[in-house]
């Protein structure tokens, strides 16, 4: 089983809009199955197997989660229905 790709799944917390590591060292099928149980999640390819058995304590996963969270904050405009409300305050007669 050498050289088989490994994947991590990161779950998006809808309240805080932050990603947390859900699982890592999964194969593709496991990752997809795990991701389907979350309302919002991301599957990320790993370059190598992560050593720490706990994804929440895994340094590599933490770093990826931070990057995903940062991107989530940047890209909020493409999916932000809440933003439309603030731009329409000047409708006076
Ligand atoms: Zn990890």
Mean pLDDT across the residues is: 85
The shape, in one word, is globular
Strand-pairing-aware structural class: alpha+beta
Q: What is the share of helical residues?
A: 25-40%
Instruction: Count the E strands.
Output: 3
Put simply, the count of helices is 3
Largest sheet: 3 strands, antiparallel
Question: What is the N-to-C succession of helices and strands?
Answer: EEHEHH
Tell me what portion of residues adopts beta-strand conformation.
15-25%
Strand order of the largest sheet: 2-1-3
Low-confidence runs = none
**Ligand set:** zinc ion
Report how far the terminal alpha carbons are from each other. Answer: 70 Å
Structural Rg? 17 Å
Describe the 3D structure.
The chain is an alpha+beta fold. Helix content is 31%, strand content 25%. It is built from three helices and three strands; from the N terminus they run ββαβαα. Strand 1 (6-13) and strand 2 (18-26) form a beta hairpin. The longest helix has 16 residues, at 59-74. It is globular and about 65 Å long. The chain binds zinc ion.
